[in-house]
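chain below, 376 aa
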Amino acid sequence: MGANVRVAEALLDDPALGRWIGARYRLVRVLGRGGMGAVYEAATADGGSFAVKIVRPDVPLRPDGLRRFARESRAAQQIENPHVARVVDAGTDEGLGLPFLVMERLQGRDLREALRDVGPLEPSCAARLFVQACQGLAAAHACGVVHRDIKPANLFLQETATGEIVLKLCDFGVAKHVALPEDSRELTKSDGILGSPMYMSPEQSRNPRTVDHRSDIFSLGVTLYETLTGRSPWRGLSALDLVVAVCTTDAPQLASLAPWVPPGLADAVHRALARNPNERFASANEFALALRPFVDDSASSHQLSGLTTEQRYSTQVSAPPVAVTTAPGTEWTGDAVSAERPEQRVRWRWLALFLGMVFAWVAVARLGIPMIDLVP
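prediction:
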């Protein structure tokens, strides 16, 4: 039985489906599942549609999971910004005895899925989306909230009723409240790393409890780097080696991997990726100001723009990442395999075949092996 079939059967057997949560929200469809929580599409009696997140009823309750859920609810409800997923209600369901969080129902996909589908984004398109991400982060930081888990999967690309694509910052499950003391029990042996190692700042890798807003700027820089190049700055490493690399080495220069990125935009990304927090942008708003000149206001905001053929080959380099449009559901690898155009590769293959035939004929002639006469 295929994995997709097993997942579908598991979703059909979900004990929460059909239940009313908070006496107002009826769970009608599973949108996603994690280790402790699940997100459902929910309908109200008046026809409203929402996304409801609850602690999974089929998973034993863990204190750290409940604390994380409470943290997300507390953080998300404080922030009001068009580029942060809006929380409209929260509470504890009496029937299940579980906390729930009600959010606006978003249509679209997250940035991780988009990059898998279209590969690296055109620089102006990426700059536009990340200006919005900076605006959402600035609103969170103004409320004293550090996200601590900025990554492509937590940047949602909402398709509005008019067709416009708007970025929304999501998932405050590991957020930190700067003004509140953090419970040391959050750092248990099984849950010691708060965040995603591939996107964490050096200081978060060392001690996630002491980070400030500049850690989010680093993580956003890693995400923008991946959006522009199709690959993360550090990859192919074990978890331990990854942490060491992030703390001790700089990201490869964007110019060597993505020559189509304007130098000023590349400089902004590398400033965000400075290992020393004092060398990064002082705020998310400052980061947004650095990105703003690279936004093309005349370009459509109704679609994601991948790289064009002209952009891919506009600058010759030894081995740039090949920009390809992958099929939905397949992973973009961004491997640097060749700087040649497809038609150039075809010509080289024919030349190699011709030279191989010539060398074979010379070798046969020197060995004195009679040639087969193909003419009758």
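The longest helix spans residues 342-367. Residues 1-11, 184-191, 316-346, 369-376 have pLDDT under 50 and may be disordered.
thats it, cya
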